């Protein structure tokens, strides 16, 4: 089955829908008009460039180039996380990039090897999309988790030192902040998982169906995507927090200023 293409004229017609939120922003004085237009422009340009690049990436289908592209995604995600969390890049760079890259490869290759059972798991048509899905989900969870963890530490330093002073180990003292970070970062993921298929139809499944896949195949892929993104998000957050922790505290457990 061939999927229905969208012409450039049809895309222009579709983009006109952005006039609806822009109108209400203007009507009620919400200062999001310029940021919305800039974001939409960037999205269109970036996706067209990515589409052009992926065309050649699939054509070359070189494992080395595919892994190099994943490393580029990791670097961009790390810089983005540093801006969103306001954590200095020198503190966050190694923990974040290590957590994202290690987890993406471990969970992604596990899925490609043992679930899809591909003979060539580095095939660009499978490897790149899976890495992209994992990276996007891990980034959101890491940003939320890091913000919650460090905000809690700054706000409740006395509690942390109180626990240490009463004989708690470093891990025991930071556990309340880790708990808060995980609860806040994963609450949206759990809520979305619980209503998937009833309240919402996920984009991956809809994309596959529109692309010609049968609904049962699309559903199987969607279920596996949800599982691997959830697992990868948790593992990447734990690796990132563990490595960032070593840069946040000195050898005596004191918070570095």
Protein architecture, described:
It is a single chain. With 257 residues, the protein is an all-alpha fold. 79% of the residues lie in helices and 0% in strands. It contains 10 helices and no strands. Helix 5 crosses helix 6, helix 5 (89-115) packs antiparallel against helix 10 and helix 6 (124-155) crosses helix 8 (170-195).
Secondary structure topology:
Blueprint: H1 8-15, H2 19-27, H3 33-60, H4 63-85, H5 89-115, H6 124-155, H7 157-165, H8 170-195, H9 203-210, H10 215-248
Features:
single chain, 257 residues, mainly alpha, 10 helices, globular
Q: Structural class from helices and strands?
A: mainly alpha
**What portion of residues is helical?**
over 70%
- State the end-to-end distance: 60 Å
The topology string of helices and strands comes to HHHHHHHHHH
By DSSP (H or I, 4+ residues per run), the number of helices equals: 10
Looking at the structure, what is the overall shape?
A: globular
Model regions low in confidence, pLDDT < 50 over at least 5 residues: none
Compute the average pLDDT: 90
C-alpha Rg (nearest Å): 21 Å
Q: Tell me the total number of β-strands.
A: 0
């Amino acid at each position: 089955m061939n999927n229905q293409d969208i012409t450039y004229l049809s895309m222009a017609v579709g983009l006109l829908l952005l006039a609806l939120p822009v109108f209400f922003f203007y009507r009620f004085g919400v200062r999001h008009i310029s940021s919305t237009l800039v974001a939409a422009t960037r999205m269109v340009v970036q996706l067209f460039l990515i589409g052009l690049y992926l065309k050649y990436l699939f054509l070359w289908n070189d494992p080395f180039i595919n892994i190099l592209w994943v490393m580029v995604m990791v670097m961009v995600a790390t810089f983005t996380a540093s801006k969103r969390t306001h954590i200095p890049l020198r503190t966050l760079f190694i923990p974040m990039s290590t957590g994202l890259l290690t987890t993406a490869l471990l969970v992604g290759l596990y899925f490609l090897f043992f679930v899809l059972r591909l003979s060539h798991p580095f095939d660009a048509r499978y490897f790149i999309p899976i890495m992209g899905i994992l990276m996007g989900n891990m980034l959101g969870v890491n940003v939320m988790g890091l913000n919650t963890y460090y905000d809690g530490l700054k706000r409740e330093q006395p509690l942390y030192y109180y626990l240490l002073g009463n004989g708690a180990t470093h891990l025991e003292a930071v556990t309340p902040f880790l708990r808060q970070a995980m609860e806040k970062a994963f609450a949206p993921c759990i809520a979305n998982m619980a209503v998937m298929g009833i309240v919402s139809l996920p984009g991956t499944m809809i994309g596959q169906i529109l692309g010609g896949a049968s609904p049962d195949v699309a559903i199987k892929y969607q279920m596996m995507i949800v599982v691997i993104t959830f697992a990868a998000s948790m593992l990447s957050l734990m690796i990132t927090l563990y490595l960032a922790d070593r840069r946040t505290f000195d050898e005596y457990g004191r918070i570095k200023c």
